């Protein structure tokens, strides 16, 4: 499996991915072998059913949404670059990156990009607002079936009321950021990819 | 005690001093002249009995011996608490000097006083310390340990605790031995093992001192948990090293086998302590499942099981501190799901109280023992010890952080490192361990003196300067945060997200194992340890319920009237459905009211439970639960005849009466409207399908169905008043209460 992986992934591609996502060489190769192990059809792309085969996603309440996050708008297959681009959001923020000036485009794993990724998981219709219904859907997925709709509805209402500042009865991205300002997003949304 | 109502601050201080002197003046002569009274007492009674003379019946006799010991103990404790009281009346002082310093100074003064009188000042008895004074503090710390930051940093904490302490011990022991080899110092008799033993005693960071000082500086969560966690977990290392070197010093030689056995011993001690603690923790959780009928003794179970865990592990020479902490941590989520709100408050209060008293006594006794203890002063040795303490701590922290940062997602900054190094205070545990050294060691007095000096230095110098340094370096402080349902939801959301992404990467990291533990907990453990149907409740819901309850309490307390009826959810469209747990519906009502008043609410913050001085919620809860419920009861009498109405077209609240049973209190409340709250009552209750509740309640004596809604009927019409009925009931409701879930973002406890 290892040799196959390295022949299919060219050096230039690795360099490009490295520049785009900030992963290191070894991380990219390691994730590539993971990519190929998921790719049962062996056609260089992953489809939804490949993801659904992962046991942890099957039992995860947000499994479907996570899977959808990997696929760009309207497409059904994702190649390795897209795979890495999504995973780049979860790279830990390094110290030297924190101090970079903001002339360059923001790296994928910056705090606001991480939050944007999470926000997009709530906001399915991409209207840049988390509406009450979208919130309800997520709550329902997380809480299970035992709780009544009314109860969930009141939680959702309360949540929106707490966060909403401009009175539009939904949570915009800025309000989302504000609510999470006390949460250590850099830590909470980072996976330690082994070197 | 005279009221401190003077206008001038100086006046207060004088009064305090006078009171103190009076107390001390009374207490000490009594102790001093105890033997004299004792002989009088026995003599007098003997004479009377035997000779049957015409001696007058002693109307007033003094028999001090009879009450001597409890009297003295009570007097000491009272003295300590009066001192503590006094400090807080002098605002400027308590702002500058940490309490621990003041208490030691008081101890010094009292010890000096006793010595001047000619009596022998009491020394901090190691037995007393380890068995009575230390456990409450540790239990308080362990029970309210913030789990999430702890588990997130447990690797770092363990590295600091184990490797840091080992480094400190060997560095200090080795260098001191080298020092003793120098002829000019004059300490030729100290061998390596004795030095290492000394090193092991003085190198461990002390939880009591750390707690006392860090509590007042409100440092950010990460640094706090690092230092605090380290101070708790290094107990295992200290125990092993201490016993090891004691044994070796007796024998005199060390073989490789001994070293190997030492390492094995470390694992046995720490894991054994953890195991013992876990066993007792589960026992306590299991017991709490059945306490629904005997609510009054619930807190005792928590205390006794924890204390038994401590004693059991001490019996086997395992780490008692770790056992105590693990016991508290393990039992807490389950116990809090089972016990009543009152019991929870009781536990919180008692733990705070005991740990506060213990801490005060420990510091005062430290001062007294300093005056009392045998001292052997050697400038070089003592000064070197102090310097080496600092140096080895700094080196250790820097070196370890360098290694640890390679593995951490959020790196430790230089400022964090500084505070971690500077916050490594030594305290009473070191002193007691030193005191336990048998007299065989010819250097015992020297060691004791050095230990005391180190303790004084760290507590006074480091303790006093750490606050200005924190300000100066602009170290991140603790962020005060109100419990926010948003944070809760989004954090759980992120947890799931990260677990999923870890799954995609094939990476079995932090989230993966946490999720596995959660699932295991939910499927297997909770059903055994949590009473009733509660174990199915998702944590989010429990959190939400609790938050709403707290807010409701505050609203009632502030006497706010709900200004508008909730309009967001139209009542008439709610389909009646058979919900197995009616309590949810009740809370729904409350929630609606609360939401409509969200803007007016004063959101108070719950202080972290490991604050010694303040428990913010206390007053509100007391007020509400006692005063309001008394009023409620009066209302209830008046409205007993009303029946609950369940009309089909509802828009406005109706008065209603519900009988509620409390097994614990054996009272029957009809949680009726709190008098200060008024709701529109447009139409008189018509009862097409009125349901009498009285007959329903006795059928379901279980806790969960205290308010028995008419099954299958939309009982949610009774908005306002019923909400408050339920609310008032909630306040003494022996309902489940979770303080903090393990996975939840750290909130002030």
Automatic annotation (TrEMBL), chain A:
- Please tell me where this protein is predominantly located: membrane
Q: Which UniProt keywords apply?
A: Calcium, Cell membrane, Cytoplasm, Lipoprotein, Membrane, Metal-binding, Myristate, Nucleus, Phosphoprotein, Protein transport, Repeat, Transport
Would you tell me the Gene Ontology cellular component terms?
Answer: cytoplasm; nucleus; plasma membrane
Compartments, record wording: Cell membrane; Cytoplasm; Nucleus
Under the heading Pfam families, the entry gives: EF-hand_7
Q: What would be an example GO MF term here?
A: calcium ion binding
- List, alphabetically, the InterPro entries matched: Calcineurin_B_homologous, EF-hand-dom_pair, EF_Hand_1_Ca_BS, EF_hand_dom
- Tell me which residues make up the EF-hand domain: 110-145, 151-186
- Alphabetical GO biological process terms: protein transport
| Family matches, as CDD domains | EFh
Family affiliation: Belongs to the calcineurin regulatory subunit family. CHP subfamily.
* Name of the protein in question: Calcineurin B homologous protein 1
Annotated source species: Salvelinus namaycush (Lake trout)
The organism's taxonomic lineage, starting at the top: Eukaryota, Metazoa, Chordata, Craniata, Vertebrata
TrEMBL record, chain B:
Q: Which residues form the Cation/H+ exchanger transmembrane domain?
A: 77-471
Bilayer disposition of the protein: Multi-pass membrane protein
Region ranges (Disordered): 672-749
Disulfide bond among keywords: no
The GO biological-process annotations, alphabetized, read as:
regulation of intracellular pH; sodium ion import across plasma membrane
GO cellular component, as recorded: basolateral plasma membrane
Q: Per its UniProt record, what Pfam families does this chain match? A: Na_H_Exchanger, NEXCaM_BD
Q: Which family does it belong to?
A: Belongs to the monovalent cation:proton antiporter 1 (CPA1) transporter (TC 2.A.36) family.
Q: Which domain of life is it from?
A: Eukaryota
- Kindly indicate whether the keyword RNA-binding belongs to this entry: no
- Its name, as the record gives it, is Sodium/hydrogen exchanger
The Sodium/hydrogen exchanger regulatory region domain is annotated at 564-645
This entry's Gene Ontology molecular function terms read: potassium:proton antiporter activity; sodium:proton antiporter activity
Q: What InterPro entries does the database record attribute to this sequence?
A: Cation/H_exchanger_CPA1, Cation/H_exchanger_TM, NaH_exchanger, NHE-1-like, NHE_CaM-bd
Transmembrane annotation, as ranges: 15-37, 73-90, 96-116, 128-145, 157-180, 192-213, 225-245, 257-287, 307-330, 351-373, 379-405, 447-470
Q: Which UniProt keywords apply?
A: Antiport, Cell membrane, Glycoprotein, Ion transport, Membrane, Phosphoprotein, Sodium, Sodium transport, Transmembrane, Transmembrane helix, Transport
Q: Which gene encodes it?
A: LOC120027422
Location in the cell reads: Basolateral cell membrane
């Amino acid at each position: 499996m290892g040799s196959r992986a390295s022949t299919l992934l060219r050096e230039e591609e690795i360099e490009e991915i490295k520049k785009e996502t900030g992963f290191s060489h070894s991380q990219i190769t390691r994730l590539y072998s993971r990519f190929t192990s998921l790719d049962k059809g062996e056609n260089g792309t992953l489809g939804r059913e490949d993801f659904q085969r992962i046991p942890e996603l099957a039992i995860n309440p947000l499994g479907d949404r996570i899977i959808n996050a990997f696929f760009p708008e309207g497409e059904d297959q994702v190649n390795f670059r897209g795979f890495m681009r999504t995973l780049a959001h979860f790279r830990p923020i390094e110290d030297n990156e924190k101090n970079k000036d903001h002339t360059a485009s923001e790296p994928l794993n910056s705090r606001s990009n991480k939050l944007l990724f999470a926000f997009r998981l709530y906001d399915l219709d991409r209207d840049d607002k988390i509406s009450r219904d979208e919130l309800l859907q997520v709550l329902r997925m997380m809480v299970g079936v035992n709780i009544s709709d009314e109860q969930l509805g009141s939680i959702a209402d309360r949540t929106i009321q707490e966060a909403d500042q401009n009175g539009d009865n939904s949570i915009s991205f800025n309000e989302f950021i504000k609510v999470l300002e006390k949460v250590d997003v850099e830590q909470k949304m980072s996976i330690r990819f082994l070197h | 005690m005279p009221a401190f109502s003077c206008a001038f601050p100086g006046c207060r201080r004088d009064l305090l001093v006078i009171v103190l002197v009076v107390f001390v003046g009374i207490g000490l002569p009594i102790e001093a002249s105890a033997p004299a009274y004792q002989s009088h007492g026995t003599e007098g009674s003997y004479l009377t009995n035997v000779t049957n003379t015409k001696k007058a019946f002693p109307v007033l006799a003094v028999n001090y011996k009879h009450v001597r010991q409890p009297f003295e103990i009570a007097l000491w404790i009272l003295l300590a608490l009066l001192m503590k009281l006094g400090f807080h009346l002098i605002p400027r002082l308590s702002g500058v000097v940490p309490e621990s310093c003041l208490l030691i100074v008081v101890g010094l003064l009292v010890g000096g006083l006793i010595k001047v009188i000619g009596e022998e000042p009491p020394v901090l008895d190691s037995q007393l310390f380890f068995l009575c004074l230390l456990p409450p503090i540790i239990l308080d710390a362990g029970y309210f340990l913030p789990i999430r930051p702890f588990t997130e940093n447990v690797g770092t904490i363990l590295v600091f605790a184990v490797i840091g302490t080992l480094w400190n011990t060997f560095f200090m022991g080795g260098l001191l031995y080298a020092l003793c080899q120098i002829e000019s110092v004059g300490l030729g008799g100290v061998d390596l093992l004795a030095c290492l033993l000394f090193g092991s005693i003085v190198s461990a960071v002390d939880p009591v001192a750390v707690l006392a000082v860090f509590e007042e500086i409100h440092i950010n969560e990460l640094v706090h948990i690092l230092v605090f966690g380290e101070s708790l977990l290094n107990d295992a290392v200290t125990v092993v090293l201490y016993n090891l070197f004691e044994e070796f010093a007796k024998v005199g030689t060390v073989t490789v086998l001994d070293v190997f056995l030492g390492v094995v011993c470390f694992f046995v001690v720490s894991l054994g302590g953890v195991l013992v603690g876990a066993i007792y923790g589960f026992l306590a959780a299991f017991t709490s499942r059945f306490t629904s009928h005997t609510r009054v003794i619930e807190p005792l179970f928590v205390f006794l099981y924890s204390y038994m865990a401590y004693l059991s592990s001490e019996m086997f020479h395992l780490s008692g501190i770790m056992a105590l902490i693990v016991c508290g941590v393990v039992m807490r989520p389950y116990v809090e799901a089972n016990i009543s709100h009152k019991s929870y408050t009781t536990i919180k209060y008692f733990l705070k109280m005991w740990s506060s008293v213990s801490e005060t006594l420990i510091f005062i006794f430290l001062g007294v023992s300093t005056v009392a203890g045998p001292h052997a002063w050697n400038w070089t040795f003592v000064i070197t010890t102090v310097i080496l303490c600092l140096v080895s701590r700094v080196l250790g922290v820097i070196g370890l952080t360098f290694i640890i940062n390679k593995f951490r997602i959020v790196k430790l900054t230089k400022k964090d490192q500084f505070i971690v190094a500077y916050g490594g205070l030594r305290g009473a545990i070191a002193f007691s361990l030193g005191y336990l050294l048998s007299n065989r060691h010819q250097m015992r007095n020297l060691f004791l003196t050095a230990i005391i000096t180190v303790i004084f230095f760290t507590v006074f110098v480091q303790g006093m300067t750490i606050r200005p340094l924190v300000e100066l370096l602009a170290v991140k402080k603790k962020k005060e945060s109100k419990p926010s349902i948003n944070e809760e939801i989004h954090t759980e959301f992120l947890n799931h997200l990260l677990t999923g992404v870890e799954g995609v990467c094939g990476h079995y990291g932090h989230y993966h194992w946490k999720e596995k533990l959660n699932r295991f907990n939910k499927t297997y453990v909770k059903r055994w340890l949590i009473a009733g149907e509660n174990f199915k409740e998702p944590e989010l819901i429990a959190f939400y319920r609790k938050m709403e309850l707290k807010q409701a309490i505050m609203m009632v307390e502030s006497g706010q009237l709900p200004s508008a009826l909730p309009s967001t959810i139209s009542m008439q469209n709610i389909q009646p459905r058979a919900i197995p747990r009616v309590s949810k519906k009740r809370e729904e009502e409350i929630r609606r009211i609360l939401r409509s008043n969200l803007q007016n609410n004063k959101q108070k913050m719950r202080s972290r439970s490991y604050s010694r001085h303040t428990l913010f919620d206390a007053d509100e809860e007391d007020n509400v639960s006692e005063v309001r419920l008394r009023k409620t009861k009066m209302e209830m009498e008046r409205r007993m005849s009303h029946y609950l109405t369940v009309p089909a077209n509802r828009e406005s609240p109706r008065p209603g009466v519900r009988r509620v049973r409390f097994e614990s209190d054996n009272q029957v409340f009809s949680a009726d409207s709190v008098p200060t709250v008024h709701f529109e009552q447009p139409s008189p209750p018509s009862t097409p399908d009125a349901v009498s509740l009285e007959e329903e309640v006795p059928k379901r004596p279980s806790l969960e169905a205290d308010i028995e809604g008419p099954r299958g009927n939309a009982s949610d019409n009774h908005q306002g008043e019923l909400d408050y009925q339920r609310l008032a009931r909630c306040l003494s409701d022996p309902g489940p209460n979770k303080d903090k879930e393990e996975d939840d973002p750290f909130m002030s406890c």
